[in-house]
Amino acid sequence: MFSILIAVFIISYHSLPLTAFNQRKAWHSSGSTHQELIENLYKNGLITDERIKNAMLQVDRADFTNDKFDAYSDRPQSIGYAVTISAPHMHSFGLEILKDKLQPGAKVLDVGSGSGYLTACMAHLVRPGGKAIGIEHIQGLVDKSIMNINKHHKNLIDENSLEIHKGDGRQGYISEAPYDAIHVGAAASGTPYELIRQLKVGGRLVAPVGNSFGQEMITYDKKADGTYYEQRHMAVMYVPLTDEKSQYVKSGGRKQI
Length: 257
Ligand code: SAH
Prior knowledge:
Blueprint: H1 2-15, H2 20-25, H3 34-43, H4 50-58, E1 77-80, E2 83-85, H5 88-97, E3 107-111, H6 117-126, E4 131-136, H7 139-152, H8 154-158, E5 162-166, E6 179-184, H9 193-197, E7 199-211, E8 214-222, E9 228-236, H10 244-250
Parallel strand pairs: 3-4, 3-6, 4-5, 6-7
Antiparallel strand pairs: 1-2, 7-8, 8-9
The structure holds S-adenosyl-L-homocysteine (SAH).
S-adenosyl-L-homocysteine is lined by residues 81, 83-86, 112-115, 117-118, 135-138, 141, 168-170, 185-186, 239, 241-242, 247.
């Protein structure tokens, strides 16, 4: 009974702020193939932009999940180290909310790049001439994400449209700053000032912000005077942006789970 209540809470909590129409559709876009999954997200209004649909169609989720039999479910899945690849409808949300900035030639940062799925979609959207940079603090995930990307998207790395680096994403990745867009894939405990600092004027950052009792998806649009316009979108539940050691402890103290 308790676990059912928790599940109902998480599902309604996660989908609260989507529009009334989409609220019913989130979590119901699973498919039996990658194409079916993306078509369902599109039919259900969770992808509205053709460019984003095409980018997601190009990046097969099965290349990035541990469980190949559940790759096309619209839910997060464990990728080890106490973290998950996000649900497909959250990947589409991140791309949709940043779509104006994910244009050919743009430079974008994916903080907490994990499986590498979203970074690969971003790289497709900003080429030619642009670059998507993933920053991930667990070396095992950095290596695995590069392996995942190399299965069908080695060209992105070879042509310099995609890089994954190991580092603490809370500090951004200063050597390639400023960015047109920054996506944060784990929850920041407060306003991510350092990341906002690394945005271009006119650039946009999207991040889940909060703690395990409550998080909101927030966008920050950088203004010419260096300040930002903040917009709150919806309640979400993400793993925290944390330090390496705490994450290893959470994953059972082992380096690999
Ligand atoms: N968008 C990714 C999300 C992975 S979950 C995907 O769908 O695959 C969040 C990721 O953030 C995890 O991989 C976790 O290891 C990473 N992370 C947490 N804290 C971090 C930090 N301080 N710096 C960099 N990465 C971090």
